[in-house]
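user:
I keep going back and forth on a fold encoding question. Separate attempts, laid side by side, tell us more than any discussion would. Would you put together a sequence-and-structure record for a protein of your own picking? Write it directly below this note and I will take it from there.

assistant:
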Amino acid sequence: MKNTLDVLMSRLRMKQLQLLIALDDHKSLHKTAGAMAMTQSAASKALAELESMLEAPLFERAKTGLIPNPFGCCVVRYARVLAADLSSLCQEVAQIRAGTGGRLTVGTIMDAVPGVVAPIANDMHAKHPDLAIEIVEDTSANMLVMLDDGRVDLVIGRASVSDQPSKYHYQPLTDEPMSVVVGRDHPQLSERGGREVSLADLAKLRWVTYPTYMPMNALLERELDLAGLTMPANPISTASPLVTVTLLQQSEELVSILPASVARLFESTVCCASCRSR
């Protein structure tokens, strides 16, 4: 695979990708050559060179003309993506040159979306309507990799999860309070009449937790350990707050944790329990 990538990086020409797209559209090498203002033999040669680079045939002859085979469908799909990205590149460069527009890609952890990212993105977009803003939600570890690769412009997350946190310019923004959340008709709350519950009261119940790679899972494990408790056995695990809230809404027996800012968005359907660790 690496050899194929090296060959493509050194020999692939945009003209060949244009040829693939045109051939997929016209189903004819003759019509494709005419549309691209080149001879049929030159078009055939360019296609053969690309197939040689990929070490696979890309088109087959059928009654309706040349049609892409599975290899061809894959390559044509990526060719169209690259062409669209180049078009966006040209548009963005033109906007920057004119002093308008541009593009900002922000990576964020779930906790920061309601109180930090959403209001700032709304305000910025209102003031700069030509600015394209993309918001990517993921774990801090994944987004720092994306930042290193240039796929996001900035990250609102935890630099501490990196092996080299000092290489990032880090500005503290806010704390991350957490809430223990249950359905509004959860029996623990009903039995205690809204009084404070402890983690010991909840530890043996059915839990919705986070995947082991997420800091939220480590946080829950730490709090339970401080309370002398073990992690719930066989929990439902999900990285999605929507899935978590939906499960809590549909079962009176489940309990989970959510960032307080996220839990407040769903306070009409879930209850944030007042909880002590010991």
